[in-house]
Amino acid sequence: MASVDRTLVADLPMFAGLAPEQVDRMLQEAQSVRYPKGTNVFQQDGEAHSFFILLHGHLRVFKLTPDGQQVVVRFVSPGEVFGVAMAIGRTTYPATATAVVDSIALVWPSAAWPRLVATHPALAVNTLQTVGSRLQDAHTRVVEMSTEQVERRIAHAVLRLVRQSGRKVEAGVEIDFPITRQDIAEMTGATLHTVSRVLSAWESQGLVEGGRQRIVIRQPHKLFLLAEGLPD
Amino acid sequence: MASVDRTLVADLPMFAGLAPEQVDRMLQEAQSVRYPKGTNVFQQDGEAHSFFILLHGHLRVFKLTPDGQQVVVRFVSPGEVFGVAMAIGRTTYPATATAVVDSIALVWPSAAWPRLVATHPALAVNTLQTVGSRLQDAHTRVVEMSTEQVERRIAHAVLRLVRQSGRKVEAGVEIDFPITRQDIAEMTGATLHTVSRVLSAWESQGLVEGGRQRIVIRQPHKLFLLAEGLPD
DNA sequence: CCGTCTGTTTGCCGTGGCGCAACCAAGTGC
DNA sequence: GCACTTGGTTGCGCCACGGCAAACAGACGG
Fold this sequence. Notes:
Number of helices of chain A: 8
CATH superfamily of the largest domain in chain A: Jelly Rolls
Number of domains of chain A: 2
CATH topology of the largest domain in chain A: Jelly Rolls
Helix content of chain A: 40-55%
Structural class of chain A: alpha+beta
Shape of chain A: globular
Oligomer: homodimer
CATH class of the largest domain in chain A: Mainly Beta
Distance between the termini of chain A: 55 Å
Strand order of the largest sheet of chain A: 1-8-3-6
């Protein structure tokens, strides 16, 4: 097992309040695992054997409904903790996580969680903050889905992706992993068709420019105004 | 300050893993406060000075959008922890909590939280589980809003209310606090009018019976089938 | 007991966005 | 280089809901 350099991860919010030696000791218990593009890191309803920190790549976390529809819960970026099912009192994963590009994650056995939090109480506190902010995100999403129409929901979703994974390019800001219109649809409760129409409209206004699994935001501020429903 | 009998609250999930004396000591730091019907326990964007356990009554927690629309986040029932903004790393409350009936809550100053979790690590673990299950609820709601049409969403909302606060009466199961069609609308992302129409339709099928701020479910199983989209 | 207020019901109409279908374009594998 | 697959675009018709409007009924205060 290749040991992971502490300096890569010691600054993550997950490890706040832990002494460097403590972080080292935790890292020694973790494995670093590769997940090639398209593979599942864990599966909905599968036994929650592990929890993770993403080191490299991007994951798509989604729920599958009984009738086969997918709903994207979130995208995971490097540095984020995920798969903490055990910590929140579950024995199975509530969703599936798939690598959208080749990815690498640190993996701990869930069984180690109780001992780890007992030894490092800060872990529970840090995880509580992480889960708490996800709860707020989820509530924000509920509010948006309750009160906004599709175009604004899509705008909000795109802006969130920009904040989380925006990369500056010549033309503006690009979302730095492959994402389809279908993905955006599954994030916003819209259909592929509607998302496509909206993005096309934005493109013709010079707001964004698109491509296959690619979105570049040319005028983030304009998009923000649109998301907030303000006149521009 | 009236001291609260430990036996009333010691079994709550929040205090799991704490010794009786520890619970006693925590209770000594809490105040028991009355909130008459219609008053706010805390306000959205207000400073998160306290966290709470509801002893008696029912609260309606909602978010207000910039344009004045309300979205109900949840209803709080006796025994539940709420207002844990500080624990999840916020300095202000993300929503408003209003007493829908005369209510009583235990109140701790948020400032005491860091010391309390340091002394009783189990608190962080228990809160993590609570927040975690709320996160799952929120995700369930997102999935429902993304994939189901109104009638099924309303059915799911009503069934959740039944599970949380159902009281057996002669005619069936009644939701044991006053709730309006508008409330249901704000829980499901529908309008008052649509909710009213749906409930009327159910009533004419003998599924439920309604009244002013009152819903009695006469055939919970039928409603469940409807919620799951199964033929009956 | 009456006026008022708040919650509810119901009809009618308009429409946002979904479903379907056809077509197109860019990768990808052989 | 060509077939095939995957993702994207766009037109058309429809319908589930929302918006508006009007009327109603139980609760509450004076």
